[in-house]
Amino acid sequence: MSKAALFALMAFAASPALAADPAPVVAAERAFAADGLALGVRDAFLKHSAPEAIVFQPDVQKVHELFPKQDPDKGGPPLVWWPLWAGIARSGDLGFTTGPYSYDGQLRGYYFTVWKKQADGGWKWVYDGGPPSSAVGAAPQGSQVAYLPVSTRKGKYPESAFADVRKAEAALASAARLDVVGAYTAVLIPAARVAGSRAAPGNTPQAQAAELATRTKTLDFSPPQGGEVSLAGDLAWTYGDAAWVRDGQARQGHYVRIWQLGPKGWGLAYDMILASPPKA
């Protein structure tokens, strides 16, 4: 742990319970989106991403190694996106947003971005991507953003908290090898969102069940290959590999998740599976 992170952890531990608000994360996302139009996608992604930020193309790529190799695209077809759902940790240092996006005027899907507060107090994203979920009928730009309720439970120190998240991941992976629906039903929190198909996303039990019904009966998940937990030990994000068989064909992809600490332990607040293009 760096000295800056240690000092931040000590300050949080000594402070009273925080009334964290996702508004700063929403503001960061909107600033990122505005720069996407003003600067172009490449330069906006570089400006607003943390040094360790990743994307899947289709495998894990470091943004600050990948994007400098791309040509500037300022003035090209507009990529437009806006947040409609967001969440944040009790400690106010880790959060996410998701919402629709369009390219060249055509709705394409939903983005999902994980944000991390930096040492200077600003926000940078550490993951950006998203599923092909239908954005037809989504609320327009400028609409009120819905918030995931902040955890009411303060967790362990980050290292211990992330170890517990890994245990939760292992339990989910073990159960998903036998029964995907049952595995997820056991860990999804009431306000969770499950994404990955072309169905419109939602945060209701009915929407969760509908999305899970699009998945294969079993899935194989690797242990988390990366991620992080908040200073409060109450919110974490993870990513790793996913594999399944559909119509006799082996498929691969990645998962990205948000875990939130609740009264009964760690539960899933967001789960996304991104399918990689079929191998030739």
Structural commentary:
By secondary structure, the chain is α+β, with helices and mostly antiparallel strands. It folds into two domains: 3-147, Nuclear Transport Factor 2, Chain: A (Roll); 158-275, Nuclear Transport Factor 2, Chain: A. The protein is 26% helix and 36% strand. The chain is built from seven helices and 14 strands. The protein has helices spanning 3-14, 23-38, 41-48, 63-66, 158-176, 180-185, 205-212; strands spanning 49-56, 60-62, 79-81, 85-88, 94-103, 106-117, 123-129, 146-147, 188-195, 220-221, 226-229, 235-246, 249-262, 265-275. The strands form two sheets. Strands 1, 2, 3, 4, 5, 6, 7 and 8 form an eight-stranded mixed sheet that branches. Strands 9, 10, 11, 12, 13 and 14 form a six-stranded mixed sheet that branches. Strand 11 (226-229) and strand 12 (235-246) form a beta hairpin. The longest helix has 19 residues, at 158-176. The protein starts with a helix and ends in a 5-residue tail after the last strand.
Task: Describe the secondary-structure layout.
Blueprint: H1 3-14, H2 23-38, H3 41-48, E1 49-56, E2 60-62, H4 63-66, E3 79-81, E4 85-88, E5 94-103, E6 106-117, E7 123-129, E8 146-147, H5 158-176, H6 180-185, E9 188-195, H7 205-212, E10 220-221, E11 226-229, E12 235-246, E13 249-262, E14 265-275
Helix pairs in contact: 2-3
